[in-house]
Amino acid sequence: MDSAEETAVVESHQNSRHAELGLSDETVVEMYYRLVQARTVDEKMWTLHRQGKIHFIISCRGQEGIQIGSAFALRRGEDFVMPYYRDTGVALVLGMTPRDLMLSVFAREADPASGGRQMPGHFGYPRLRIITGSSPVATQLPQAAGVALASKIKGEAAVTAVYFGDGATSKGDWHEGLNFAGIHKLPVVFICENNGYAISVPQNKQMAIRDIADRAAGYGFPGIIVDGNDVLASYTVTKQAVQRALKGDGPTFIEAKTFRVAPHSSDDDDRRYRSREEVEEWKRRDPIERFKRYLEEVNLLDDSLDQRIREMVLEEVNEAVDFAEKSPLPSREDLMKYVYYNS
Amino acid sequence: MKQRSQASAQPRAVSLPLDKETLLHFLNKMILIRRVEEKVAEIYTRAKAGGFVHLNIGEEAAIVGAASSLADRDYLFTSYRDHGWALVKGVAPRAVMAELYGKATGCSKGRGGSMHLFDSKVRFMGGYAIVGGMIPIATGTALAVTYRGTDEVAMCVFGEGATNIGSFHEGLNVAKLWQLPVVFVCTNNLYGMGTAVRRASSVSEIYRKACAYDMVAERIDGMDVVATRDACLRAVERARKDHEPSLVELVTYRFRGHSMADPARYRTDDEVRWWRERDPISSLEQKMKDSGMLTQQEIDDIEAAVSRVVTESVQYAESSPAPGLDDLYKDVYVQSEGQ
Lengths: 343, 339
What we know:
heterodimer; B: alpha/beta
């Protein structure tokens, strides 16, 4: 096995053409639409939280690049996807709607992830093969290996994409999940959104290595580093990983270097552990602004189209909030429902 | 990526850089382990010892080489295959035997049995029955050493099966992150119970896993007591002087099944024979004889002395009392005495 040598840095493709990647003009504009949509949903949720209408949120802000780019490389409804709590962008690309997400944060009965039972950010939609997560960090890793093993046993051409942050990679569950996927060459794409902080703990206080992708060598499969704020680069590495998995060549580990520009959650004050300069520096590398510049360069976006997209998204998100607010809460009689299967 | 790990698993040419006295000491300990374990197998089949028993037969070079690299003040943690490790760290053979018999005079007062030998006086911090469970505990002990500012080293021994357990990952990550004085020793005997290493671990060369922590790692022929001692001494010194943790992989083989209850049908006779031809005791004897350091008479003398120790330890265990009923609740909580 020579995976250590395969660990490679994929350069940003800021100037490469999306056509070379087989992406149509419509698709890249839709990518932009999804970026704006994810950001808008997030901003609206913060407002709702500050208004006291919802209780808790986890932000995707700053990490939309890897989320949108990687999710576009997955096959909606065919591949199994296990997002982590920050993956608003992934959920939206895969077919969850702003309504679905608002139903979840308002804990409404119609919430497709759990009927209002799960915490916000626990995305789930069985029909779309989005598998809802358990709250402890990294529990989705062994579960993903198990889902992929099921696909392999059934002979189903499905890939399992599992998302997590850098903090999860310090957990034992993570190690067990990657090892198992490596032994059995399972069709899994491991996507680490490395935003540099496990809540308040910076990466250099979590692990003695700089690149988490180095760890893939310990499991016998490639570890790829990608600029997670580059949508097309994120798309490219994920696409290659999906193809590798479908060919039966086994898992790939993707480390997307990114940053969350918001605090960890609505209950966190990140000023206590990060400098404002660091946050401002990363805001300048905003994945949405960067992709916008790309689309402008290739003449696919101008101010008027941008304006129209933003208005469309805002209208959709506002409508979703109204819809969710008016939806009924789970009924008292259903309290014990969904505790056990078939209960 | 940085690859500081280095492989040296190839059997080395005959080289005995150590003096006769040291080598005789190693040989003595290896024979002691072998004969104790043979006796344990006997008393177990005669239902004198309860619970499970996992024998060290075949792994004597790995045990003696690794454990002899520690100073008396250093801590040793092992898996449940712990009899030989306890003996080399300084637990008396009679206390080990009495523990297997479940007697009050056992090193764990008859509470532990085969898998939980323990003697804090010689800093043998125990066999642990949960696979990989002692890795964070040993790492925590190294953290305690760091807190106190003393210079002890914690050595943590586990099989290759344990390296697939989450606690291995968490322990090694923290050990390197906090630069703790700990030496992780993996006795890779190629089988996690009945599962061959290649079927349970995505990389079969365990030392390569250290790259995930940027930790120094070596792969050593664990059937060679001198090579093992050299590598472990290097690791212990790194830990003591530089607070630099290491992972040392000792490639070895258990000649018997996983436990006394395992007929080991998952290995071919040819494979077992191949390894038995590399018996660590007879190969050391041969090397020493070839270089004129050992006579058959000396071997016979060692065997006779060891035999007396084994017989005496069995008599001691047989004649020792069982723990008293009144002591049932003793040693459950720290404060229990006098309550």
